[in-house]
Structures are given as C-alpha cells and as structure tokens.
Amino acid sequence: MSSSLEIIVLAAGKGTRMKSQMPKVLHRLCGRTLLERVLRAGAALAPKKIVVVAGYGEDALRKELELLRDQAFLSGIEVEVRVQAEQRGTGHAAEIGLAGVSANAELVLVLPGDGPLLRGSDLQPLAAAVQSAGAELGVLTCLHPNPEGFGRIIRSESGAVEAIVEEKDCSKEQRGIQEINTSIYLGRRSFFAKALPTLESKNAQGELYLTDVVKYAVQNGCSVVTVTSDDTAPVLGANTRHELSQLEALRRHEINRAWMEAGVTLEDPVNTYIDEDVEIGPDTFIGAGTRLRGRTIIENNVRIEGLSLIQDSHIETGSHIRLSCEIERSKVGAECDIGPFAHLRPGSFLWEKVKIGNFVETKKVELHRGVKANHLTYLGDAEVGGGTNIGAGTITCNYDGLRKHQTKIGAACFIGSNTALVAPVEVGSGAYVGAGSTITQSVPGGALGVARGAQRNIEGWAARKKITAREPEQS
Ligand code: UD1
Ligand code: CA
Question: How far apart are CA 224 and CA 226, in angstroms?
C-alpha cells in the first residue's frame, strides 16, 4: 500500500464459546493456528508493524508468535504484543492495540483474530476503497443469508451507513437485516485515536464495542466507506468448535482440490486431511483416511494406501506406504515398502529400498539401503547397514532403566528371529545371529553369534510321565 499501514489484531478474548483452556486464536485449522492465518492475511498488505492484542492465555500466544516470527511471511514486519488484562470489549482491545501503533502510521487495519479463512486478496478492495475515497474509516461488510449472531449494518434510506448494532441490541426489525459486520476495519490512525476513547459500554453486554466507531464517524462528519462482499467464508469467525469444523471443511476441500489439480490422486477427497504446509508430488496416490500433517513432503509416484498418519516427515519417490502406518518426524527414502501397521517414530531415517513390515516400530534409527525388518520388531537407537535382514521378533534392548544405548549392525548381516540385542552392542558386517539369541557381547564381522540354551531331547520322556494325548476340554 502506498500510505504507511499498520495492523492491529484483536486476540485477547478467551473464546468462551469454544469451551477450551486454550485461547480461541490458538485453535488450529488445517495445521495452522487461527492467529497465524490472520497474520498471513494481514502480512499480505505489507504493513510495517502488526500489533497483537493478547489477554487470555497471553503466554501461550507469545509462544506461538515466537514460533511464527522466523517464518518468511513475517520477514521485515515488526510484531508487538500489547496486553489487554481485562477483556472489556473489542473497542477497548482496539484502543490498547492503537497505543502500539507507530505515531507516523497513516492507516490502521483492525482484524479480529478469529477469522481463519481471510486472505490478503479479501482485504484489497477495502484498502482500495478507503484510499480512493480518502475516507476516514472503511468497514468490510458481508451479505449473509443467516445473519444470526452478527452485528448488523444499519443504513439510512439513501443507503449511507449509519451504525452497526450487535444482535443482542437489535430491534426485531433490525434482526431481519442480512448485511453483517465482518469486524474488519481500515481507517486513519488519527480517526481511531479520536473515536476509540469516546466509546461507552451502554449496551446489552456492557462492553466497549469497536462497532460504535461507525456511529462516532457519522455523528462527527467523518467520511465512512463500506465494501460489501457476498462471499461469506473468508470473513467468518470461528467462535465455536462447530464453526471451526465447518470452516476447516471448506479449506480442506480447497486444499484437496488444488492437489488433485496438481496431479495427485485422492481416493476419497472428503476423507483426506492435508495440512496447509504439506507438499505432494504428481502421480502420488493417497488412499482414504490419510492424514498428512505439519511440514510433510510426499514426493512423486508414492502410494499411500490409507488410514495412515504422516507428520513432519519426508517420503521419497516411488515408496509404498501400506495401510495404517504412523510416521512422525522421519525420512523414508526412495522405493521403500512400509507397513501395513508400521510405526516410524521420530528420528527414523530410512535410505532407499528399505522394507518395514507389519508391527514393526522404529525410533532414532538409520537403516541403510535394502534393510529388511518384515515382522514384529523394535529397532530403537540403532544403525543397520545395507542389505541386512532383521528376523521376526528382533528387539533392540536400548534402555537399561536409566539410559538409552546404541546398537550397531553392519551391512549384509542376518539377525535370526526372536533375537534380543542388549545395547550397547555391535554386530559386524556379514555376521549371523542365531534365532532366539540374547546378544550381550559384540559379534565380529563374518561370525555366527549364538546365545541361547542348547537344546536337549529326552527320549521317551512323555511315556514315562504317562502323559497321553487328551481331547481338548469343553469350555
Ligand atoms: C464481533 C463484532 C460483530 C461482528 C463479528 C464478526 C463487536 C462488538 N462485535 O462479534 O459486530 O459481526 O465480530 O465476526 O465488535 N477481543 C479482544 N478483547 C475483547 C473482546 C474481544 O481482543 O475484550 C477479540 C477476540 O479475541 C476476537 C475478536 O476480538 O478475536 C472478536 O471478538 P468476538 O468475541 O469473537 O466478537 P463477536 O461476538 O464475534
Ligand atoms: Ca468472532
């Protein structure tokens, strides 16, 4: 924008209707908090500064802002938190925010913190209207077929805006008005500085309403423009968990559609949950019930059968994730074959062509090319060399009750089924471990390590004990 613009985000409310310990603006929609979403929309207008008004859950809100500060969308934008200790209404919050706005800012945009689907492009028409009319105040309004719960826009017979009336203060007639207040305002800093201190709490909720700045403008001859949108979703707030889920469904639909247009097959787009920051390559197949969370990257030609949860992980090209896997903060190399029912916990690093079968759990492991762990295994704090076969039921005993220890298995080893590897321990390249072994000492490369009681067969034992085969007991 040509004139210097700063933004106030109102985020001090508890969000009582969420019935949550967490402030409303920290609830998430497709992987991003409501606060992040509103900040992104505002940041698209390239403001010099954003003042976030915090109150309920201030510490949690500051933590979220710390996490967001390093993200590219906030680069070059100063972010300041101002505290509204007691939530006395949106007008009061805006006044506290205004104290953080720079004295030389010309324009101030006020955004509610709970409008998660707002985009920068939804704000452009308001900015253009205020600029071209040289108005003191601009309000974004919206035509809503079901205006229940919103502030209504009151207009004179000539159509000029006169006031905003909250639903609780509306007459029966006013309740019929379908033009609603979006709670998005853009005005001169000097206007807000005059108007906000005059607000009074003579209303049904006993609060200082930001909406009353319109009445102030009209009474004091300050020019007001309105821009009316008929697209409700971008300007709606998420006040309840139900509203949040409805807005999330809208966004999910858009995200899924965009991925399909980018060449990704979604078996059942209604039941596929892809967070905002996920990346997916073309010709990848994503089965029903898949959840791709956080900063996950799925490369091209990957096949994910479904019902899997993949969080902050990277799956390289050509891999196959069978049904019902959970993969978190892990990397799966190219052409791996995972699952069904595999659990890759944080720090699992798989090179290419690794095979992880059913009921296998990994954590902090590096599995080199072609490692196979096909059944019922736990590999934690371990490195396994290329081509090694881990037999069914192998366990790295990585925890001695106090500390975690490493297991190192070389390349081209064969670890027999039901082996316990008591860490710290090493198995050298090319070594074999006999099935059922409890390995407590390192096995040299190329050797066979066996650590189990030798088998004894006692001839004729059953007859001597007069044990005869019996019919199974009826239960
Ligand atoms: C507000 C508007 C209403 C509009 C609707 C659009 C007022 C009085 N009402 O109602 O006209 O139709 O938004 O979504 O402005 N907040 C504070 N401090 C407070 C109170 C609220 O920071 O003391 C923040 C909240 O955290 C929230 C935002 O202001 O992010 C809006 O508050 P909310 O309670 O959601 O207002 P609505 O009832 O939705
Ligand atoms: Ca709201």
Answer: 7
